[in-house]
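Q: Hi! First time doing this. I have a protein sequence and I read that you can turn it into a structure. Is that right? Here it is:
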Amino acid sequence: MPATKAVPAWTGALLDNKKKGVYYCSCCGVDLFSSSSKFDSGSGWPSFYDVMKDKDVSRLPAVDIKQDRSYGMTRTEVLCGKCSSHLGHVFNDGPQPTGLRYCINSVSLKFKADKGGTSNGGGNNNKNNL
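A: Yes, that's right. Below is the predicted 3D structure, encoded as structure tokens:
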């Protein structure tokens, strides 16, 4: 079942995770974000400046985006590209090289550490799709 409920800011289990590895969808297991694109945004949720590519179609990102008008705001929602579960939102105030901030709910992610101690690459600039 797709994740729909966010945890309150500053309470998520993965917020302060500094290990190298991959963050993947807690519902379907697809890889979404590399630890190499994680940064401290000060928002209270795990934040990333880039997404991984789809494993089956490498020209596509591992996430989908759509307009979200809930709670009287207009935002860009981030969904898992495989199972469409809610992951969080993306904003245009992130660091370079993408300028994006994927603000993701900890409950929608699980983490697998790299065995060799190196981080997997991201590599899909999704800025033009916002």
